[in-house]
Amino acid sequence: FAAAAAGKHVVVEKPLEITLQRCDDIINACAKHGVKLCTIFPSRFSPANMAMKAAIESGRFGRITLADTYVKWWRTQEYYDGGGWRGTWALDGGGAYMNQAIHNVDLLLWLMGPAASVCGLTATLAHERIEVEDTAVAAIRFRSGALGVLTATTSVHPGYPKQIAVHGDKGSAVIE
Length: 176
Description:
- There is one protein chain.
- By secondary structure, the chain is of the alpha/beta class.
- Helices cover 30% and strands 29% of the residues.
- The protein has helices at 2-5, 20-32, 47-57, 77-81, 89-92, 96-100, 102-112, and strands spanning 10-13, 37-40, 64-72, 115-123, 135-142, 147-153, 163-168, 172-175.
- The strands form 2 sheets. It has a 6-stranded mixed beta sheet with strand order 4-5-6-3-7-8. Strands 1-2 form a two-stranded parallel sheet.
- The radius of gyration is 18 Å and the shape is globular.
- The chain starts with a helix and ends with a strand.
- 26% of the residues are buried.
């Protein structure tokens, strides 16, 4: 708010905010002071992700049929206990999807386009004293007709590198 009031353009990384009301407040403050506002997800600018986007757009994979991403990480109970904001709805805004996997959620939508429908399941399976999910899966139907899967967790020991994959009827690519 201070930046907007000072006439400065505002760039916010991952995500704009964690509640709709606070998003609206930021949008309204920037509009009131006539400054530009944008959110940025820097993972879009990695060379590998940019190459995958270009390959999709050029038709290299043919008709895209399936895309999936997973963030299978491990967080100790001490990780959550060590910060009063971690694992809370009010300050963290969510669990494995919102905090750990948000960049991969963005990448999947950036690569594949808008979702037509989503269904999912979440659970808190490996941690105590947290309000949010530590394990989540979602199935997506994209407007293109392709299907997708998004897995996010902090409950998988010892944890693995995150991955995103796009598959088509003429080729596939996987980034880890």
